[in-house]
Amino acid sequence: MTLDNLKKTPLCAACEAAGGKMVDFHGWLLPVQFESIIAEHKAVREGAGMFDVSHMGQVFVEGKDAWAFLQYVNTNNIKNTPGAGTYSHIVNEQGCIIDDAISFCLTPEKFLVVVNAACIDTDVAWFEKHAASFDVKITNDSARWGMIALQGPSAIEKAAALIPGVADMARFTIQGMELFGAKGYVTRTGYTGEDGVEIMASPEAIVKVWDALLKAGVKPCGLGARDVLRLEAGYLLNGTDADGSQTPYEAACGWVVKLGKENFIGKAALEAQKAAGLKRRLTGFVLTGAGVPRGGCKVFKNGTEVGTLTSGTYSPLFKGIAVGYADTALEEGEAVEIEVHGRRIAAKKVKTPFYKNRV
Amino acid sequence: MHTAENSKYAKTHEWAHMDGDIATVGISDHAQQEIGDIVFIDLPQVGQQVSAGQNCCVIESVKSASEIYAPVSGEVVEVNEALKTDPALVNREAHGNGWLFKIKSSAPADYEALMDLSAYKQTIGQ
C-alpha cells in the first residue's frame, strides 16, 4: 500500500506534526487517529476537539434562480434568508440518495453548498445536468478552502478569541468573516452531536486557525473518533449507510423530504414509496452481549435473517452500537442476534440517536 | 517470566514464550500500537485444538477487528481471564500481563520455526 499518490489537505503537515496516523480516506491522506480514538472521543464529548475536514466540498450556487434551483435538486425546503443553513438530501429521479449536504444562504442569490468529499464530482455534474433551465452559475470551489470542525461543549469558548460574536450565532447559521487576512466562513454546525463550529478559510489561513486552536488547548482528533461520534449522534454516513440504492425514507431521514414542495427531483418516486410503505429502514441496534458489531454483519430474529448492518463500532458510552437496514416489522426493544465473526451475539433494536445531544 | 527478549515471533505479530511444553502467546508491542485502543477480545475456548497459523482469536479495537493466529500447534489450556474485564491491558503490557492464551504444544518444531526478536524487528523495520 502506498500513501504517496494521495491528495493532501492544507492541514496535512500540521496533522503529521501533531502525531496523526495518516491513512487513505477516499483518496485523501487524513489522520485516522492521533493519540487514541477513545481519548479523542472523550475530548469532544467533554471538552473540545478539532478535525481536519478540508477534504469536504464547497460548491457555490449563484444567480437569479439560485434558490429555485436548490429547491429543485433538494428534498428539503432550503431556507432563503441570509445566514440560514438547511440540511437536505440530493436524490435522483428514483428518489435514491446521491448525497447529503448543507445549503447555506449567503444572499438570496448566492448559496454555499457544503458536500461530502467523495461526492464532489458527482454532485457538481448532477447540478450542471439540471441547471439548464435555471439562471444559475455553479462553481466547484473546493480546492480553495481548508476546513476545520471544532466540536465539543467547550468549542464555542475556544473559538471566541478567533471568531468575534460566535456565541451569538444560532445553530445551522453561517457568517462570513476575515480570518488571518483572508475571506472565511464560520457555520454553527457539526457531525458529532455536540455544539461547535465548522470553519472554512483559505489554505494558508486554515493552518493559522489550526495552530491558534492547538495553542488554546483544543485536541486534534481523527477520522476514527469522528466515526464513533457521528454514529452515536445518529448521523448518516453517505456512501456507507446509503449506497445509492436507498431513499431518505429508508435511511430514516424522512424529515428532510418535503412532499408539499411544488416540484423537486425524485418527488414522484418518494410520494409513491410513502404511500406504499417501507419493507426495510435504517435501524439502530445495541449489543446486549459482548463484542463489536461492524458493517456487513447480519441481523437475525429467531434464526431468520432480518437485516444487514451498514455501520457498527465500539462506543465508549454505549459499548457495541450499530445501524443497518432491517425489517420495519421489528419493534423498539425487540431482541435480535447479530452475527460477528461467526458468533451470534444478543442485541436489541433501539431508537436513534444513541446519544441524546445537548444541541 | 516472558519478556520481549525471551519470546519468539510469528510474522503475523504474535509472540510465544515456551516454558516446558507450554507456550504463552500474546501480540507484540508493535502490533498493539498498530491496533490502537483494544476494547474487546474474543478469546479461544480452553480445550480447543489449534494448529500453527490457524485463526483462533479476534482482537477488536474501536476501529477494526484483527485476527490472531496460533503461533504453535496444540491444545489451548488457559486463557487470560483478566482481559475479559480489561482488554486494554494488552495495550499497556503487551509482553507482560497482557498475554492472551496458553497452548500445550504438540509439535516442538513450530516454536523453532518462529523468529527471534532481532529477526522480528527487521520485519517491522525497527
Structural account:
The complex is a heterodimer of chains A (359) and B (126). Chain A folds into 3 domains: 7-53 and 145-232, Probable tRNA modification gtpase trme, domain 1 (Gyrase A, domain 2, 2-Layer Sandwich), CATH 3.30.1360; 57-126, 2-Layer Sandwich (Alpha-Beta Plaits); 279-359, Elongation Factor Tu (Ef-tu), domain 3 (Beta Barrel), CATH 2.40.30. Chain A has 8 helices and 20 strands. Chain A has helices at residues 12-17, 37-46, 66-73, 120-130, 155-159, 203-215, 223-232, 267-276, and strands at residues 7-8, 21-25, 28-33, 49-52, 57-62, 85-91, 97-107, 110-115, 137-140, 146-151, 174-179, 182-187, 196-201, 219-220, 280-287, 298-301, 304-315, 319-327, 335-340, 343-350. Chain A has a 6-stranded mixed sheet. In chain A, strands 15-18-17-16-19-20 form a 6-stranded antiparallel β-barrel. The longest helix of chain A has 13 residues, at 203-215. Chain A is globular. With 126 residues, chain B is an alpha+beta fold. Chain B has one domain (8-123): OB fold (Dihydrolipoamide Acetyltransferase, E2P) (Beta Barrel). The A-B interface holds A 32-33, 36-38, 41, 224, 227-228, 290-292, 294, 313-314, 341, 343 and B 36-37, 39-40, 42, 58, 60-63, 65.
